[in-house]
Amino acid sequence: MSDPVQWEMEKGAPLGHSAHLLHDIPLPAAVVFEAPLTNNLTWMQRFADDHGAKLAPHGKTTMAPELFKRQLEAGAWGITLATAVQSVAAYAHGVERVLMANQLVGRPNMALVADAIERGLEYYCVVDGVANVRDLGAFFAERGLTLNVLIELGIDGGRCGCRNAEQVKTLVTAIGEESALALVGIEGYEGMIAGGDEVASVRAYGERLVETVRTLHASGVLDCEAPLVTASGSKWFDLIAEAFDRAFFKTESREHYTPVLRPGCYVVHDHKLYAGAMANVQTRHPELEGALQPALEVFAHVQSLPEPGLAIVALGKRDIGHEPDLPLPLRLYSLHDENVAPIDISDWRTTHIMDQHVFLALPENADIAVGDVIAFGTSHPCLTFDKWRRVLCVDESLAVTEVMTTHF
């Protein structure tokens, strides 16, 4: 009897070394197309460079070291992560500079980070409260290490971060009392801004970040010559870049500050949420050349045609993100007649999703058969990547060119 270990495999993984998506992969499978991926890497890096900013893509989107490597090779300054475990996983796979855009809380998490710093990781995290500052200061003093911290600026009703200048002042004093902490800049996240004139509010927030880091720099409390000022998710990156660019456009200013942008979803983009955000960026900046392109899709078989007007697809919540939007049908591939070109079904509609099933409403006389393959687009790619340990990179012919691993 064969060793059962030989039969263990991850979903979406190839059956052999050379593979074609439609013929050699047990579906469903998460797929990244090579051409738009390459476009996105180049486009965003060029955008950051053109605005005099560093790029530290948010790695929690994909947690794929192969994509981290491509981002760094394209020119990224570092990788942003959300947790201590993510930070250490990235370092274990070759990322040498990490910006953790959260407070570092809990001694086991501090220990993970301290071990990585001792091994050579250049690490930054944020703080927004005195209690955390005290805990960090005590822990890293015990370890004989210096921890780089940035003060986080928040917004009323938002997520983390200091709400006002008085809280920042209090935090600066507390950090100054901890010999193991080095205050190296200001961090923020504009993605929680909503309601009213959002564009104006994001611009004002960007200016607040800039003015805060300038004030701290002038007061002499920062522990580096070119302090960081960093923000930017994947929706408003152009407005944050503008705020940084306006503030530091002079050569002498650029030498004294390090502006850092942190979008993450751009690397594979999407078919709705961030596609709409990109359209807004292009409206605000018609001079921009090119655009981000959707690169991530999930392929699955038609599993059943139980009644007229309905197809059940072998795909579910365990395979593809469904918030804020249900999976988006894109193309139908007939495996019964391989000479038929893929059919555009972007006007078809997903009506429901369960753990392992998607309900697809069919137009009248739809030419579809059990076993056919449907490519679905995503909205908010973060919530698809975390469902896969293997993600396939494919070329335009659907030949698998690389199997990428994720490490959530």
Q: Could you characterize what this model shows?
A:
The chain is an alpha/beta fold. It folds into 2 domains: about 5-30 and about 290-405, D-serine dehydratase-like domain (Lyase, Ornithine Decarboxylase, Chain A, domain 1, Beta Barrel), CATH 2.40.37; about 40-265, TIM Barrel. It is about 30% helix and about 25% strand. The protein contains 12 helices and 18 strands. The protein has helices spanning about 20-25, 35-50, 65-75, 85-90, 105-120, 130-140, 165-175, 200-220, 235-245, 250-255, 275-285, 380-385, and strands at about 30-35, 55, 80, 95-100, 120-125, 145-155, 180-190, 230, 260, 295-305, 310-315, 330-335, 345, 350-355, 360, 375, 390-395, 400-405. Strands 1, 10, 11, 12, 13, 14, 15, 16, 17 and 18 form a 10-stranded mixed sheet that branches. β10 (about 295-305) and β11 form a beta hairpin. It is elongated and about 70 Å long. About 45% of the residues are buried. The model is unreliable at about 1-5 (pLDDT under 50).
**How many domains would you count in the coordinates?**
2
Kindly provide the radius of gyration, computed on alpha-carbon positions and rounded to a whole number of angstroms.
23 Å
CATH topology of the largest domain: TIM Barrel
What is the CATH homologous superfamily assignment of the largest domain? Answer: Alanine racemase
Please identify the structural class as seen in this structure: alpha/beta
State the end-to-end CA separation. 34 Å
Question: How many DSSP helices?
Answer: 12
- Residue share in β-strands: 15-25%
